[in-house]
Amino acid sequence: MSTTRRTFLARTAQAAALASAGTGTLRALAPAATFPADFAWGASTSAMQVEGYPYADGGGRSVWSVLDNDPAKVADGSNNLVADDTFHRWADDIPIMQSMGLNSYRLSVWWPRVLPQGRGTPNQKGLDYYDRLFDALLKAGIAPWVTVHHFDYPAALDQQGGWLHEDSPKWLADYAHLLAARYGDRVRHWMTINEPNIYWGFMVESGGPPLSKHYDHDQLALGAHRILEGHGRSVQAIRAAARKPPQVGLPFAGMFSMPASDGPADIEAAREQSFALVPTELGSNSIVFGSNGWWLDPLYRGEYNQACFRYASSLSKLATPASMALIRQPLDFCAINLYFGGHVRAGADGKPEAVADPPEMPRSHAGWSINPELLYWAPKFLYERYSRPIVVTENGISLTDKPDAQGRVSDPRRSAFLRDYLRNYLRASREGVPLGGYFHWSLLDNWEFTRGYAEQFGLVYVDRATQKRTPKESVSTYREIIRSRGAALAGG
Ligand code: BGC
Questions:
Q1: Where are the domains of the chain?
Q2: Is 444 in the pocket of ligand 1 (CB under 6 A)?
Q3: CA 121/CA 58 separation, integer angstroms
Q4: Residue 427 phi/psi, 5° resolution?
Q5: Is 22 a residue whose pLDDT tops 70?
Q6: Whether the Cβ atoms of residue 318 and residue 163 lie closer than 8 Å to each other
Q7: Cβ 152 under 6 angstroms from ligand 1
């Protein structure tokens, strides 16, 4: 069966029947035309993609430092030694956020900036930087949402075995404790580890940068388990150290399937596939750790999918009741990063069957499919299964728009993306999925790891030579959506 995006978008009337499946209970709500009043409207960045100057004032090396002088490994030969220089220019960006109407900003602390060896003696100057930044954000009425660890694993810890070392969960938790003790009087929203499935799956299991190591199944399962334990211990550490009651979550890269039709069998197939262990084919590799199916049930339910034990029999020794209880910390919100997804239908045997994207499927510069309905299905599936309020902590599109002769950056595709995705998110809200916020990736065009500066996800254009910031035209679209709490999404 061939389906198109138009078909998917036409499903605006389906509601209550879908809402009743699964374990979560969707509230029967009168249709709400707007997002909740206390909704977090934000944009996201991460330290190693925007700050620059990693070694200033005594900062240490991360595993990504291997790319400092290795242009051949980065698409445009760049590195992140300067990036957007928010290390020095953060004060310029705050008025831009205010002008958009943001009440929240998701950012990360650069682990080796504050702990150059990953643990041990903190770097006071590094810690001072974030004090200044958080204070200024709060003064501007913008709540910092802080990710403890966003891909920036300290090189010194990697040299000791990284996530395969038995102390690695404690290393992360000690770092989280340091941050919560220092900033937890002001920062209320915390996220432990960004996208463990992207880091451990697409970056490590793939054998590519930054580690360029090859681990066997048992080592991969062990590292993933320790990452989960590191998360659990960090949640405990944040709750113990923060002076104001914190809200804690883990921003996961959602790999969701959407139903190829409105039929209940296809919807059930999409739901099943979204939580199964589904390998991703990446060149000649088959990546298992990118899948929702490895991580989400341990995090929210304290249990592994049976397929994980078939992948690595050694996992059964690790997954003791005490360890699974540690991993399954009560989380205040389900943080999810959503960009694209695939479609499935129920096959002849009722099992999920992938449906190829139609040739006319619109794509971003990075080649990612544009699937606005992802912001309906993923929050709905997540809430049904885990019963936590949803916060989309990343969602965005890479484009290549540059300033015109008048210096304006026109990015109509980003405006359309914002409207289409947020319209679907609002639909989830109308059907009773509690939503806590939306963070667009990204505030600024920034450094995309091995893709360098070639993928421009920013609401704000950054001139690489001068660091001049130019808000793109999509900023007005986002501002209007925020101002109206989504009412502006009604109609066209
Ligand atoms: C990551 C970001 C990245 C974005 C776009 C997410 O996987 O959390 O660091 O820049 O996707 O590629």
A1: 5-23+31-489
A2: no
A3: 12
A4: -65, -40
A5: no
A6: no
A7: no
CA distance 43 to 83: 17
| Structure confidence at residue 26 (pLDDT) | 54
Given a contact cutoff of 8 angstroms between Cβ atoms, the answer to whether 235 and 177 are in contact is: no
What does the alpha-carbon distance between residue 482 and residue 140 come to, in Å, rounded to a whole number?
Answer: 17
Task: Give the DSSP letter string of 160-184.
Answer: TTGGGSTTHHHHHHHHHHHHHHHHT
Q: Which residues sit opposite 190 in a β-bridge?
A: 146, 248
Angle of CA points 85, 134, 435, to nearest 5°: 105
Q: How far is the CA of 341 from the centre of ligand 1 (A)?
A: 15
Between strands 469-471 and 460-462, the pairing is antiparallel
Confidence check: pLDDT of 416 > 60: yes
Instruction: With beta carbons less than 8 A apart as the criterion, state whether 438 and 336 touch.
Output: no
**CATH architecture of the domain covering 5-23+31-489:** Alpha-Beta Barrel (3.20)
Based on the residue annotation, tell me whether 303 is a catalytic residue of this protein.
Answer: no
Kind of pairing, strands 352-355 and 257-259? Answer: unpaired
Q: Which atom of ligand 1 is nearest to the CA of 451?
A: 12
Q: Is any ligand 1 atom within 6 A of the Cβ of residue 194?
A: yes
Pocket test for ligand 1, best of 448, 453, 459 (most atoms within 8 A of CB): 448
**What's the CA angle centered on 116, arms 111 and 121, to 5 degrees?**
105
Ligand 1 contact via 373 beta carbon (within 6 Å): no
Which residues are within 8 A (CB) of 364 and not within 5 positions of it... i.e. 6 or more apart? 370, 397, 398, 399
pLDDT in tens, 39-92: 999 999 999 999 999 999 999 999 999 999 999 999 999 999 999 999 999 999
